[in-house]
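Researcher: Go.
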Amino acid sequence: MRKSPEPRTAGATELAEPAWAVVLFCVACGAVAGALLPLLARLLLALPWAPLEGPAELLTSVPEPALTLGTTTVGVLGGLLLGFTALHESLSVRVCDTHVTLAVRDGVQEFTREEASLFFRDGKQLVLLGPDGLERARERSGLNWSRLAGTLTAHGYTWAEQDPHHAEFRRWVPGAPGLPTGADALLRARAQAREDGGGAGEARELRGELLRLGVVVRDEDKRQYVRVVRGVTGG
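Model: Structure:
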């Protein structure tokens, strides 16, 4: 895999989520949530016993229409912040006949045709396999899957409807046999990072360490499933 700050554009097809649609959706959700907050507070106070009774009483003490206007404004601002965060986390894909570029967060990854053996969808994630069977990339995607698959195949890349190695995955349990030296400790650390919450970056880094040992990991809820690619040595 090669990283390029300025990916080539000649003959490329670029797919990305429309920025305006993402932001507008988040702002609309925030506005609705903000507008409904006073109603929710009143409903809570009508119950014989209600959680957060103090904050609800404080909120409803503000006269209308200032209350609804205020909560709606806060909801819009929160939705705007969420929208820009979602844009930062959204995946864009640029495809041409010689290479594929994946851009997400502050990173850009470029893969040559030789490195990009197979693409497939795993839930809400786009996965790229190399010719050795190891994952070259696994990124959450909100793109239109049919369009993405059509674009890749139109440029000569291989798209599969599911992971061809799906049957090889086994659920990881601590101390499970058959793993390369050091893999079990990495999986323990990764499980802890996911359990603690907010450890997405660490879990991602540990996934990379496991790949260097020839271990591919996929998640289902809080469970980790692994498959071992033989003949891969750490480095």
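Model: Confidence is low (pLDDT under 50) at residues 1-10.
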